[in-house]
Amino acid sequence: MDSQTVSRHTVTPDAPTAGTLKPNALGVLGILFFVLSAQAPLTGIAGAAPIAVALGNGPGVPAAYLVAGLVILLFSVGFVAMGRHVVDAGAFYTYIGKGLGRTTGTGSAGLALFAYCTIQAAMYGLYGSIVGGLVASHTGLDLPWWVWTLATMAVVQALGAAGVEMGAKVLAVLVLAEFSILSVFALVTLVKGGGPEGLGLADSFSPAAALEGAPGVAVMFAVASMFGFEATAIYGEEAREPRKTVPRATYLAVVVVTGFFALTSWMLISSYGASEATAAAGKALEGGDGAGFVFAPIAAQFGGWAGDVLPVLLATSLFAGILTFHNSANRYLFSLGRDRLLPYRLCGLNRRHAPWAAGCVQTVLAVLLVMPFALAGKDPVLTLFSWFSGVAVLAMMLLYLLTSVSVVVFFRCERLDARPWNTLIAPGLGALGIAGAIWLILANFTTLIGGERGTAVWLTLSVPVVMALGIVAARVRGRAVAAADG
């Protein structure tokens, strides 16, 4: 093996082989669309920004997005350095296992699956509610939210089985639509010089503005909005020249997403005026329509048609995110099956070299997570969406922290990369920033899930429990495989 490359799995440059995802299927832009879909820009802005403004640091929210982006960028330096030497669809657990040992790596595999499946289930809840409302208002057909959710699960399963290129094309259309309307709104407002109080640059980005109110709450929601950028490494096996494509896609995704959220939130606040934005966000939340805080100024800018289109784009934004997390989760299942940590049948591929067996299992998991809320008659937004999105963010942040520490340990042991900034300083600073973000999430977890303290406690405890179960299950599976091979 080349002394400069340590890889869990090597892909051929021209043709796929058994147990291998289709190589050379995605370029930088294809991977970027998967990442942007996971972050669901319109969902992130319409869902998180009103709460961050009302309960966080008010007009200083754009600065919180910059802080979150800086932390994620520092994390990405080590993440990319590791990705140059390890290419595997099970990105997180492979990276963590390389530095912190196989046991910790296998535990993190269970945690990664938990994070991706719960965030997808959360999005299904919000999606079903929004689509049900749209159909009822336009056609009069009033069906339960879970009917639309189950129908969409079948569509997502079909698209996932159609291959990664088809998924990338669908996502490109959906992401461009939501990204375009928000970006045009932000740029038009910027060119016009802002709202009634001007651009309010100092009101949003000065140190005093950033530290106003409860900045921890704002940073917490800003970090949560960036969930999903790490998907760049998951598609490494299917990327063209992964050791070049994945780093470029990762850095581009972090910069684009940070700039997008910071600019859009700034222009939203400017459209109300810095002195009025906090009250406007609070009023929208009290009225049960937080998204109205975002939709109202966009409709005022472009006309009434925008108010009709935005709810539809919110639904397609959620669909794009759901499809992306389906693809991420089934690639984790595929990788775990290939490594014999789960049944080997999970790495079965169809004619398009898509992981169809893992995709079927992932869809079943989605049904099992969503249907208890439907059968219990729970509100899909106040329970399913709020609870699962919060616990998924907490689980993912723990994975970020473990990955940062693993990067430092890996390069201290392997000496494959002598650059201190890439393998020690940036990952170390990123780990400190992520640890701070985890502390903020834990301190404000009840706010994040919009639930009661008791609910917050058992959701928080589910994260270490899942990781422990992952370790135990991997050990049991390892003994069973060893016995069968022996």
**Unreliable stretches, pLDDT < 50, 5 or more residues?**
1-18
Number of strands: 0
Mean pLDDT: 83
CATH architecture classification name: Up-down Bundle
Please tell me the total number of domains.
Answer: 1
* CATH superfamily annotation: Amino acid/polyamine transporter I
Describe the structure in your own words:
The longest helix has 38 residues, at 102-139. This protein has one domain: Amino acid/polyamine transporter I, CATH 1.20.1740.10. Helix 5 crosses helix 16 and helix 5 packs antiparallel against helix 17. By secondary structure, the protein is mainly alpha-helical. The protein has 20 helices and no strands. The chain is 77% helix and 0% strand.
Q: Summed up, what is this model?
A:
One of its GO terms (cellular component) is membrane. With 486 residues, this protein is mostly helical. The protein has 20 helices and no strands.
Key descriptive features of the protein:
disordered N terminus, Amino acid/polyamine transporter I, globular, 486 residues
Task: Please describe the topology of this protein.
Elements: H1 28-39, H2 41-55, H3 61-83, H4 91-100, H5 102-139, H6 145-161, H7 164-191, H8 201-205, H9 207-210, H10 215-225, H11 231-234, H12 242-272, H13 274-286, H14 292-302, H15 304-338, H16 356-375, H17 380-414, H18 420-443, H19 445-449, H20 453-485
Helix pairs in contact: 1-7, 1-12, 1-15, 2-10, 2-12, 2-13, 2-14, 2-15, 3-10, 3-12, 3-17, 3-18, 4-5, 4-17, 5-6, 5-15, 5-16, 5-17, 5-20, 6-15, 6-16, 7-12, 7-15, 10-18, 12-13, 14-15, 15-16, 17-18, 17-20
